[in-house]
Amino acid sequence: MKLFPDKLSTRLEREIDPVYLVAGQEALSIEECCDAIRQAARRAEIAERIVLEADGRFDWSQLESSTETHSLFATRRLIEVRLPTGKPGREGGAALRAFVERGGDDVILVKCDEWDMKSERSAWVKALDGAGVYVPCWKIKPHQLPDWITRRLAARGLRADRATATFLAERLEGNLLAAAQEIERLGLLFGAGPIALEQVREAVADNARFDSFRLVELVLAGQPGAAVRSIRGLREAETAMPLIVGALARELQGIAAFQALTRHMSPAQAFSELGVWKSRQQPLMAASRRLQPDIVRQAQSRLADLDAMSKSSRQGEFWVALERLCVGLATNRAGMCAA
After folding, report:
1. Tens of pLDDT, residues 287-339
2. Residue 247 structural domain
3. Contacts of range 42-47, beta carbons closer than 8 Å, 24 or more positions apart
4. 194: which of 109, 159, 175, 319 fits an S-S bond (Cβ 3.0–4.6 Å)?
5. Per-position DSSP letters for 141-166, written without gaps between them
6. Do 25 and 125 reside in the same domain of the chain?
7. Are residues 171 and 216 in the same domain?
């Protein structure tokens, strides 16, 4: 049964299904839906949870063996299969279908961080959909974002009119994670109750679009136009140049390290080795797959030049060079990342 994210909580309040498939392109929605399922399982006294990281090296026989081992502490377990690519392959698809066909008391949650419409036609997806709940988490379109923000504000106890929600949507440029964080901040600032557009304008100021960490997010997400607007806002706000260089340098260093480690270990192991926060894992993985290692190395070298510019008489060249570098990274174009 296909069930969109905004309907999932109602279903979970009524019953726990034996199978959940949560998949899509919106990392925040995926993680929140999975969290809701985990919480509902705990409320249903499904206390034990088994997590299987099904990357390219995964042995799918582990899925069957994990369910054959009886728990000493619980009669039901939540088996969570994390499928980063969204493609289990022939062996994995057969293993998932076999799990569904066997039935039993355990609940399975399959989480896919990459997805497309063609995936819905796969035999294993149809099997999971037919046996339980499929939650597609597609990216929210620009015209849908104000309604999403309004619902999110309401869940936080805040009431806002359409103009306020539209203002936030425009400021946050479609970034759901940034929107969720901003709404949490507004809740802390104002508490429950109505919130006016002028209050939001003053509270948000230019942080959402123009701070250096936001610039990094836009570059990694492959949004060159928004990145250029962010850089111009940073310049107008007279943001310290070394702060911008530092934010980009830290992220590029993380990408380079992740690319190197995943040559001989799984992404989950690499994240653990690097100590990457869970909220940063999906953007870092996506950027690492999109950017060629040579481009990352060129960009790191160019950042060293930018750092030197920021501390010399060439500060006037810094902003143009920064725009060129960020557009090159956002579009994966090697020439623009070179000096």
Report:
1. 898 898 999 999 988 888 888 888 877 777 889 999 999 999 998 876 666 55
2. 212-337
3. 44/16, 44/76, 45/74, 45/76, 46/16, 46/74, 46/76, 46/77, 46/78, 46/107, 47/73, 47/74
4. 159
5. PGGGHHHHHHHHHHHTTEE--HHHHH
6. yes
7. no
